[in-house]
Amino acid sequence: MINLSPLPPSEVTDGVQEYFTLADKAYRNWTQAPKGYTAPYALHSGYHPDGNEIDQFESVTLMTKKIISLLDIDPKASTAILENGCGVGSISYQIATAYPNSLVIGTNITPSQASTANKYRVSSGLSNLWYILGDYNQPCFPDNSFNIVIFCESLCHSTDQAKSIQGAYRVLKKGGKLFVADVVLNDLPLTTDEAKHLDNMHRGWFISEFRTLDEFRAMLQATCFGVPLLSLDITRQTFPSARRMGENSAKRLQEEQTVPPVITESRKSCVALHELMKAGKLKYFWHLLEK
Ligand SMILES: C[S@@+](CC[C@H](N)C(=O)[O-])C[C@H]1O[C@@H](n2cnc3c(N)ncnc32)[C@H](O)[C@@H]1O
Question: What residues does the Methyltransferase domain cover (predicted)?
Fold first, then answer.
């Protein structure tokens, strides 16, 4: 594991909150939702079939759909679902809409996003959807409460990923499923330039721990999860999103604009993600595990 955390956990938390608050406009633009779209915008990558770049809104919507179909939710059952690090709630909202018998809770440590998510919930009138302000490292739920726990591009911000996974394990029912979407390190060692990119991702996106696929799986299994039901490499399908983010951010970094330092640092992270994926040093994976 490469642990890049010289920052104490409280500074990571402050940094995450500041970044996701100040980057709100960028994320609203990211989904490129058509006029009149009333659901929450997504903060995650797009899914581009066979790696062929498709329309931005379609790609982001497709990613949400693919994740939901992987969860294999029974429409007749009352499935309890927890989304950890839910952004402004897009995945939770889509699940609650498509599965009225489910109960969906999204948690987020960033107050401004939790409040935006709640506005979407109120205007939707959905009665099976709740958003909670809270740290997924201190889940406030009883043991064995959920059938499904989701981390979509959110576990990476944890100051202690093993602890986050243990928390998810505790609140899952026996037979419940854990879904994680995130990047893993590949093809080590890194060159000096690549290590600099990784450090930029640490500074801009507050990612402290980077693991290889084997290390990541070992961490999951150390928490008593068995062999993954699924470990799917979708680097090819997400790469066009990384390229789009990286190229846009590289342009913005050339412009003489006065933006908060946290935004400048996050743009360096976008460039870094693109460069590291292009070099094959970061891979994007879906993991599905059963308790
Ligand atoms: C890249 S966004 C992904 C959002 C959402 N899952 C999606 O796919 O649209 C990461 C989210 O994780 C949240 N987050 C980071 N650390 C967290 C923590 N310790 N507890 C709860 N939420 C956290 C951030 O505030 C942010 O909303």
Answer: 77-194
Report the run of H or E that residue 289 belongs to, with start and end.
strand 282-290
For ligand 1, residues with CB inside 6 Å are: 16, 20, 42-44, 84-87, 90-91, 107-110, 113, 135-137, 152-154, 157-158
- Nearest protein Cα to ligand 1, atom 27: 87
**107 C-alpha to center of ligand 1: Å?**
8
Contact indicator for 131, 118 with CB cutoff of 8 Å: yes
Torsion of CA 173, 176, 182, 183, to 10 degrees: 110
155 touches 212 (CB < 8 A):
no
Which pairs count as long-range contacts for 135-138, CB under 8 Å and 24+ apart, including other chains? 135/13, 135/107, 135/109, 136/84, 136/85, 136/107, 136/109, 136/164, 136/167, 136/168, 137/163, 137/164, 137/167, 138/167
Strands 2-3, 209-210: pairing kind = antiparallel
For residue 38, report the distance from its CA to the centre of ligand 1, in Å: 21
Mean pLDDT, the chain, integer: 95
Q: What is the pLDDT of residue 43?
A: 96
In which residue are the tokens 């928490």 written? 223
| Residue 165 near residue 220 (C-beta atoms within 8 A) | yes
Tokens of 224: 């008593």
Give the span between the Cα atoms of 172 and 79, in whole angstroms.
12
pLDDT value of position 4: 65
Measured CA to CA, the distance from residue 103 to residue 99 in angstroms comes to 9
Each residue's pLDDT tens digit, 205-255: 999 899 999 999 999 989 888 888 899 999 999 999 999 999 999 999 999
Q: What are 174-189's pLDDT values in tens digits? A: 999 999 999 999 999 9
Domains and CATH numbers, the chain: 2-290 (3.40.50.150)
